[in-house]
Amino acid sequence: GLGVPPWYADTPGVAQVLSMNPNSDEFRKSWNRLRQVYSTRHTTNAHSDFQKDTELLSKRLNSVTFQVIHAQKNPHLRYWDALLMLLISFTTVLQPYEVAFTLHPIFGYLNLAMDFIFLADTLLQFNIAYYDTVMAKTVMVHRAIARHYLTNSFAVDMLASLPYQAILWGLGHHQFDKSDPGFIVDSARLWSFLGLLRLLRLLRAPRLMSRMERLYSIDHGMLSILTFVMQTFLLAHFSACLWGLAPVIQGVVYGQGEGEAASDHGVPHFMSQGQYSYCLYFAVMTLTSVGYGDIYPLTSFERWLSMCFMLCGAYFFGYVIGSITNTVSIRNHAQNFFYETMDKLQAFVEEHQVNQDLRTRLRSYFIYRYKSDAAGGVSWNEIFDLMSPSLKQEVAKNTCARWISNVSFFKGCEEDFIVRLSLSLHPETFTPREKIITLGEESNRMYVVRQGVVASEGRIFISGGVIGLDMLTNLYIMSASIRNYEGIALTFCNVMRCDRQHVLEILDKFPNTSATLRHTIIRHVFQSEIRSYSRAVVRMITGKRSVHARLMGDPSGREEHYYKKLLELSPESDVAALQETLLAARAPPPLDMAPQKTRRGTNHPP
């Protein structure tokens, strides 16, 4: 009753596949095999059963409770990642402060809520696909994802996600009062350090950032500078909290442990919320090697801790200064290249004694190149050449292919042909009043305007416009025709050049498109010839060209050709008779034939 054909003996039956666990790899393999066999070999009689069974299988496959999440394709995962980054930042700042100083009890409930959120994220990682660098593909199988996660970062994520606040409450430590001197000497004080394990959540940040880099446009130079600023703040914050923990770690109350008065230390006997400013002040002063001396270490532990602060500050700020200098230098690469180019240009014009007008035009050209999207002398082709062939086609499909597909000649052509043609385009830049198309050149090139304004054939072309379409009409003749029109850049223009030879080479690989394009070109040429002949006839009869013909010009020269031929073939008497007939038809009617006006204001002939 399942409609299984006789040749289906070596393939699992539909009933067998339905009985499998939809979460298993065996079910997915059997389902894929079943789909492939039916799609290539099913008969007409089994078609209806196949449709019903495949719908049931698809519903079963889609009814899995936990679907594999593709990090780049799932629209909700990016919001979850943003929430986790916010909570990681909050934990990084709050947790050291909570261990060293006293917080409001409400923060305990906030920590408990964040613990459960990170615990939920740990479970979610078993359903997020990962990219296998060895196999060069995205893994979408639950078992492989779980194995990869368990052998890599599961232990650290789980350790950072445990509900430590609930554990502390279970042990009877509902709130640690750091302002109580008895807490400092109590052995239970060490339980307050348990929450520091939450700082392991920082290890999730690189994984989240790698996913965000694929989804969002990030200025990496600015990101590096912001990272250095955040690292500086975190180093000072961690140092201040560690300095505040010094009496807790030692278990010593100042004025009692070493016989020194608290006033000599510059801080009270115990730490409190108000003392964070003192600790941060000492940390920044020590890290930057200022050392005013108003707050200083008393015990040996504090002296060793201060020396660590000094060494860390020296190494860290040396690293930061060098990294920021390198980042600024990289960010200004385009500007430095521009300055170097302008210096070379200045030396060139001085050596060759270039006149002032040409110097101004040259400087304007390179300044425009720097400010345009081809800034700094780095053409977009340099980025384009680094892409794989498939990515090149995707990018071309979303950029130049949109302009080319708007050309009437390419309507109905294959999409692959449009993409290949887009890949053959070459960028060029022209200055104002520079000729893109010169009079008398062969029609071997066509141009797509990317930026700027171009005047050609009596028309104005802006971004997306195409000039030099007569190149297409000459594709199927032995030699290109001569152009009797010009194309002039009215502003600075970036155009994409398409060569006739490249089009012919691409058409050889697409015979169907070649036939379609040939038919379109022949129809266009026929219509153009009819229009040119009609304008020549009107010009011969009236003795002048129409307003539309004067505005559009005669780029192909066909109107002038037909006009001369008509003058040669038509006798002057025939031309004069046609002109008299036309004048008679345009003459006003006699007065007695003028229309009469009725009472209602309508005109009726007498």
Q: From the alpha-carbon coordinates, what is the Rg to the nearest angstrom?
A: 40 Å
Number of strands: 12
Largest sheet: 4 strands, antiparallel
Percent helix, as a range, is 55-70%
Structural class: alpha+beta
**What share of residues are in beta strands?**
5-15%
Q: What characteristic shape results from the CA principal axes?
A: elongated
Task: Give the overall pLDDT as a whole number.
Answer: 75
Number of helices in the DSSP assignment: 26
The strand line-up of the biggest sheet is: 3-10-5-8
Low-confidence stretches: 1-12, 40-48, 255-273, 374-378, 598-606
As for the number of domains, it is 6
Distance between the termini: 88 Å
Key descriptive features of the protein:
606 residues; Helix Hairpins; 6 domains; four-stranded antiparallel β-sheet; 12 strands; 7% strand; elongated; disordered N terminus; disordered C terminus
Describe this structure in words.
The protein has 6 domains: 6-62, no CATH class; 70-203, no CATH class; 219-331, Helix Hairpins; 334-377; 380-509, Jelly Rolls (Sandwich), CATH 2.60.120; 523-586, no CATH class. The protein has 26 helices and 12 strands. The protein has 606 residues and is of the alpha+beta class. A 4-stranded antiparallel β-sheet has the order 3-10-5-8.
